[in-house]
Amino acid sequence: MNAAAEAEGLLIGDALADARAKAGPLQVHDADPAADHAALRRLALWATRYTPAVAPWDEKSGADGLFLDVTGASHLFGGEEKLLDDIARRLAHFGLPARLAAAETAGAAWALARFHAQAPVILPTREESAALAPLPIEALRLSSETRATLRRLGFRRVGAIIDKARAPFAARFEKELLLRLDQALGRAPEPLASIVPPPVYHSLRYLLEPVMTQDAVIAIATRLMRDLVHVLERDGVGARALRLALYRVDGAVTALDIGLSLPTRSPAHVARLIGLKLERLPEIEAGFGFEALGLAVTVAERMDEKQADLAADGTCTTERMDERCAELIDGLRQRLGSLSVRRLAPLASHLPERAETRCAATASPAASASFPWAPPDETRPRPLLLFARAEPAEVTALVPEGPPRRFRWRGVMHGVARAQGPERITGEWWRQMQAPTRDYYLVEDEDGRRFWLYREGLFGRETASPRWFVHGLFA
Amino acid sequence: MSPVHHSGCPRSRSEIVEKLRRLLPRLEGLSAGTRVFSFGLPALDTHLPQSGLVAGALHEIAPQAPGDTPAAFGFLAGLLTLLPPDRPVLLVGGIADHGRVCGHGLQNFGVDPARLILVETKNDKQALWAFEEALRSRIPAAVAGMIDKLALKMSQRLHLAAGDAGLPLLLLRPAKADEASAAATRWRVGSAEAARDRFGLIAGSRWEVSLERCRNGRSGEWLVEFDHGAHRFSLAAPLADSALPHRGAAPRIRRAG
């Protein structure tokens, strides 16, 4: 209900026809709570430029405002007054008239923002009782039944409840009344659900002039990381995941997430990964430029002190090599996608297609594999190239359970010069009942090319017409 | 050789040739500290400059026919045994539609599958970027990959990147690839009948290897065998130089100059 509407004499709850009668032509829009919610979220993301702990109000509190936890952030602006001024000014630029209040507790701030006569207002410490006393009961975020009952009983101002004995209230009303009162007065805690998970370490820079180029963004991100290095060192941790937030002049916020395989404190490495990520993403709309950048460490991990880099001619310690390998893998992942860098790891299975797998690459191979590779067995040769799905082949053999003599694969006929085998691999009965048995043959054709064929199904015992497949190629 | 007396030119012909031979590698950018990987087979090594594959260079390996691609890849895997074993090997991309690299099969070539880092790329541009990135980091012992089209400028760039890093870049090319390239060596590999032991089991892979192009070297053709037990190259009997021993000395890395 804004001021213009009140001037026309409209009241909340009027029927549309009555409203039109009172005020003449009106623009009618259907209430769209989903869009309102989304808009509030965007505003909350914008507000993270002041502090990462921003919580939009939920439905019961009105869903039209935000809590900002500015503990420790107000000194960056030269005091709470200047901070509130800054917020009010920017919101006015967006065309959003706002009422602002700052207090020690969230409950008191909510009450003052809603109901105080003059806004903005900053409440000095320990004056919550005095400030809340003249406000109406609605200033405590209570359910409508509680409010109605309180009014019926004659409690109209918060001051009427504050200093009374608590036991009768506890008996007649739900816990909510006393809880809200205690939260507003600071006697009970009120946890806020931030819209972004509050990071462990973060640093923020406001820029005098908005920046638009990628190089400038990377340079500022490097400086932000340098700001964080000494706190990370002090706590003995390194960053495993980072989030870079870019705040546009017109209020939109873009966030980039960077993941690393080993904890790092190196600004150069982080800058390189950010550069790669920016190259890989489609155009980030800079609009009129970014006015603030924030870098937050979302996951931190223990990181021990290491020696400085030794000679660059390749003779370096294993830890240094692992670290540089991790940096290489990180860089490749940023540019090509996080699943694009893998290592091979063996699995415990007889079936060749299940005997090994690809897993995410880590700097040192020992970390990837759960158990070591078995040494090769010369009676069980394995091909250099294996098909994930064996390809069918048409085979003519002298006897049905014997080695192949000729086969056709991918449209080409091959005559078999020598066949080595069979190596019998039975199916994994614990995974699939009646899994067919395979007889593998290492087959060399007349041109000297070597193939790995198998016959699926024992002739006579399992199937009357066994099928043949090409499973791999030998070098 | 007796000195030839030319008026005003006291040096003998052999001295001049020797001086030129020493000069050429410097012109090519190979300094005294270049590392070289030799096969350990004199019949092969004498065709290569400085008796081995230069470490910091681009080397191309192409199959004779599309069906020989596994053989070409096997030759590449054998080359990996000549390199220091403690560093990872980066393999960028796949081997076209010939299946995926099998770690158990790689063990037969003396390459520890745990060393391999596989990088998947969506197109040639990403693959080229990945090659440069890996070479620049100087971490791997070698960078290998398969690439379809390689323009001359790009091959020069890769060759320079490999030279800066001092690491070999081994590229598999398709069978039809014939364009001009800045590679130091270009090999062509065809399949051949395998070497068998007395039970008829395959003891080693054999390939018809021809060195098509070699900077500062000579081309040649050999029947090369890779022993799966000893993880060594050797020359199969028919084409080996009969004056030299059949199984060469163990391959080693030498510093040139």
Protein described:
- The complex is a heterodimer of chains A (475) and B (257).
- The longest helix of chain A is centred in the middle third of the chain and has 22 residues, at 214-235.
- In chain A, strand 14 (438-445) and strand 15 (450-456) form a beta hairpin.
- Chain A has 14 helices and 16 strands.
- In chain A, the strands form 5 sheets. Chain A has a 6-stranded antiparallel barrel. Chain A has a 4-stranded antiparallel sheet with strand order 5-8-6-7, sandwiched between helices. A two-stranded antiparallel sheet of chain A has the order 1-2.
- Chain A is elongated, with a radius of gyration of 35 Å.
- Chain A has 475 residues and is of the alpha+beta class.
- Mean pLDDT of chain A is 82; it is low at 307-314.
- Chain A has 4 domains: 52-185, no CATH class; 201-334, DNA polymerase, Y-family, little finger domain (Dna Ligase, domain 1); 341-374, no CATH class; 385-474, no CATH class.
- With 257 residues, chain B is α/β, with parallel strands linked by helices.
- Chain B has a single domain, classed as Rossmann fold (3-Layer(aba) Sandwich).
- In chain B, strands 3, 4, 6, 7, 8, 9, 10, 11, 12 and 13 form a 10-stranded mixed sheet that branches.
- In chain B, strand 7 (142-146), helix 6 and strand 8 form a beta-alpha-beta unit.
- Chain B is globular, with a radius of gyration of 19 Å.
- Chains A and B meet through helix 13, strand 9, helix 14, strand 11 and strand 13 of A and helix 3, strand 5, helix 4, strand 6 and helix 5 of B.
- Strand 9 of chain A pairs antiparallel with strand 6 (116-119) of chain B.
